[in-house]
Amino acid sequence: MQEEGFSVWETGVSRGGNGSAGQAVADGAPAVPAQSCDLVTVPARQGLEAVDILRLRDDVGPVLHDGACDTLGFLVPAGTAAGWDVPGSACTQTSGRGIALGALCGDAPCGEGTAAEPPVTGTGWLVPPEGAGAAATDPAVLRAALGEAARTIEAVDRCQ
Q1: Are β-strands 35-43 and 90-92 bridged in parallel, bridged antiparallel, or unpaired?
Q2: β-bridge partners, 72
Q3: pLDDT tens readout for residues 114-155
Q4: pTM of the full predicted structure?
Q5: Which H or E run contains 101?
Q6: Tens digits of residue pLDDT in 52-108
Q7: Where is this region: Disordered (predicted)?
Q8: Contacts for 96 with CB less than 8 Å, ≥ 6 apart
């Protein structure tokens, strides 16, 4: 199955700090457990407006953009897809396996000059995990921001 610009995929995010409990790994370095996520995809114009709204409130989690920059993908907590019903968007359920972002950063921890690699081929980070205000965007907060973004776009289009 393929949503606009994104194929069905599995991902998760983990972030250090903020009281996250770490687990020891073989070399003694702490590993932060991964959080499974679903992916909400929206058209880029609406998504960019929503990102701006969420950044003002420090509520944005990691956000992907597709290679053509046609869509944005917001990482949201696993289980969001079951109740997602926002017109003009889609929420893709992942298989529930998370990817620890530390593993995507190579030998250096994320946030120390090394950006996490996007978990989907052909995408890039608009808001990388190490620069996000949350591990994943709260679905209710995202729903409100997407509604506000749609109203802003509608108002701008009426004025043109």
Answers
A1: antiparallel
A2: 42, 65
A3: 567 776 677 889 999 888 988 899 999 999 999 999 999 999
A4: 0.71
A5: helix 101-104
A6: 999 999 889 999 999 888 999 999 998 899 999 999 999 988 765 554 444 445 444
A7: 1-26
A8: 10, 36, 78
At position 20, the amino acid (one-letter code) is: S
How many residues appear in the chain? 160
- Distances in Å between the Cα of 12 and the Cα atoms of 32, 42, 47, 148 are 12, 19, 20, 27
Give CA separation, 88 vs 22, 45, 69, 107, 142, in Å. Answer: 38, 12, 16, 39, 13
Do 34 and 14 touch, CB atoms closer than 8 A?
yes
Check if the beta carbon of residue 60 is closer than 8 Å to that of residue 19: no
Structure tokens that stand for 53 in this block: 């709204």
Q: Name residue 43's beta-bridge partners.
A: 71
Instruction: Report the pLDDT value the prediction gives residue 143, as an integer from 0 to 100.
Output: 97
